[in-house]
Amino acid sequence: MANGTDNHSFAEHWLTIQPRLFDFLEDEVGELDEEQKLFVRVAESLELRRIAARYGWCGNGRKPSSRLAIFKLLLMKHVWNWPETKDALGEVRRSPALRRLCGWESRSDIPSESTVSRAFADFARDGTADDLLARFAKTIFKGRAVLHRSIDSTEIDARERPATKDEMADAAKSAAIKARIDANAEDFSALAAQKDRDPGTNLSLLPTLCDWGCKRNSKGRTQFWRGYKLHIAVADGDIPIAACLTSASVHDSRAAIPLMQKADALALSLYDLEDAAYDAREIREFSEANGHVAIIDSNPRRGEPKPDGRGERFVRIIPAEKVRLRNRSGVERVNGHLHDAHGGRHVRVRGHAKVFLHLLLGLLVIAVEQASAAMLC
């Protein structure tokens, strides 16, 4: 892995300034515990000043509540894994230290839950968290090559009505029309067609309505859920690079090329590690055409060898690449960490944009946490 001068200097600068920053904050708010220090790392590592610039007061009407402070509150909610926004507001009102870390001097400055909800809707509409994750990935991997990039998906339970088949069909037709694609063509969403399209078009054509999904778990049992499916690209060190959210019924392979296109724009990678759900000729060809080595587990089809009694697959890869494929466990750890510690199981909002923002806030915390552990930020 090649180190860039800019990243090396940034890492040294952060290691130098971090103790002084914590000392300064502890003088102001008292001794910080580990979760508070993690929150400080997240807030300082992300370019949150862009939020203040984008949502700053224009000088007309009543001055709104600080959107920067509200975004910090939302990040804080995911650091502590509080289930609901009202829980986060209650903790901030009770703790002067947390209130000061967000940027509010007194309890009267803390906004109401409805104000936070409106700000959350603005962040979801503008793609604020997605931009922050992209900028963070570009910063820490500038001048570096990601050795292994792993892609996988995870189920996201949602509290909303699943879309009907007619609603899904109408949404797909509308997306195709907006992308200036023949909506009557049966193969407009095929993998072969994705290779020749730009990432924005490919992502816009992915279904995003809430519906039912099913998958076979590690124990061989089929499980069902209502909601969405989160697709994540993860670098070595369990660092999320890019993500997209689709309907729960979308097959993993359909989101692979759009997600790879999105990740390619953020970090240079060498090996693509994927499980049997991504075993498709189009995905392999796309990966190799972009200078990657595709290591994908085999998905036995008709006439091919079946998995043996121990659950192992007959993969069409050489032993050395089979060893590399074990690094794909990193994306599974990220999925588990998101669910267990950073809000993946506490989706209380509705709609694709808001659910995606909620999950991205958790991924931002994980990205900074893991990058700090790897001394990349």
Secondary-structure element series: HHHHHHHHEHHHEEEHEHEHHH
How many angstroms separate the termini?
16 Å
Low-confidence stretches: 1-5, 12-17, 308-315
Name the CATH architecture of the largest domain. Answer: 2-Layer Sandwich
Number of domains: 2
CATH class of the largest domain: Alpha Beta
Q: How many separate helices?
A: 16
Biggest beta sheet summary: 6 strands, mixed
Topology-level CATH name of the largest domain = Nucleotidyltransferase, domain 5
Helix content: 40-55%
Instruction: Look at the structure and give the mean pLDDT.
Output: 87
Question: What would your notes on this structure say?
Answer:
It is a single chain. The chain is α/β, with parallel strands linked by helices and 377 residues long. It has 2 domains: 5-126, no CATH class; 129-162 and 209-348, Nucleotidyltransferase, domain 5 (2-Layer Sandwich). Helices cover 50% and strands 14% of the residues. It contains 16 helices and 6 strands. Strands 1, 2, 3, 4, 5 and 6 form a 6-stranded mixed beta sheet that branches. β3 and β4 form a beta hairpin. α2 packs across α4 and α4 (67-79) crosses α16. It is globular and about 65 Å long. The chain starts with a helix and ends with a helix.
Describe the structure concisely for a colleague:
The chain has 377 residues and is of the alpha/beta class. It has helices at residues 5-29, 34-45, 49-54, 67-79, 85-94, 96-102, 113-126, 128-140, 165-178, 191-194, 199-204, 252-264, 281-289, 319-325, 329-341, 352-373; strands at 145-157, 211-216, 222-235, 239-247, 268-274, 293-296. It folds into 2 domains: 5-126, no CATH class; 129-162 and 209-348, Nucleotidyltransferase, domain 5 (2-Layer Sandwich), CATH 3.30.420.
